[in-house]
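Q: I'm building a small set of examples for a reading group on sequence design. Run inverse folding on the following structure and report the sequence directly after it, with nothing in between.
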């Protein structure tokens, strides 16, 4: 459509109407269910909780990881540490709530990744953490040790 006036001309019904949305994102095709988007924000914290069926024997681990995700926005972590921790926690949940049987090696690596994401905060090496974040990270790592 070369003439923008055609889209606004009610008498011109042979041409398809073109609509522009300038206020927000528009998604064409593809699924966007369960997706999270932040639009025009200075800062944003997003969490997604996995409510899939937890593999038998991993219920305690799922509870601890979901609790960690709930507390994460208030834990005082720097933005990159918070994002790394969130991704690592979601990998653990994906493994224990997925349709396939839990693979012990994959779960062990995911848990190691989650503890590794928390380690710089727990040891005080991570810069930009708020007061209390170090203690929170130590407690989170302790809660993940010996399970899974």
């Amino acid at each position: 459509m070369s003439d923008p006036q055609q889209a606004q001309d009610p008498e011109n019904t042979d041409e398809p109407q073109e609509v522009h949305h300038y206020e927000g994102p528009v998604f064409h095709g593809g699924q966007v269910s369960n997706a999270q988007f932040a639009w025009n924000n200075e800062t944003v914290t997003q969490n997604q909780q996995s409510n899939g069926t937890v593999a038998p024997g991993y219920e305690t681990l799922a509870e601890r990881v979901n609790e960690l995700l709930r507390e994460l926005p208030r834990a005082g972590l720097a933005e990159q540490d918070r994002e790394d921790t969130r991704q690592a926690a979601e990998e653990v949940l994906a493994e224990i709530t997925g349709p396939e049987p839990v693979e012990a090696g994959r779960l062990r690596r995911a848990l190691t990744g989650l503890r590794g994401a928390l380690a710089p905060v727990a040891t005080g090496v991570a810069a930009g953490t708020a007061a209390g974040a170090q203690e929170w990270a130590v407690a989170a790592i302790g809660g993940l040790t010996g399970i899974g």
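Residues 37 and 137 are 27 Å apart (CA to CA).
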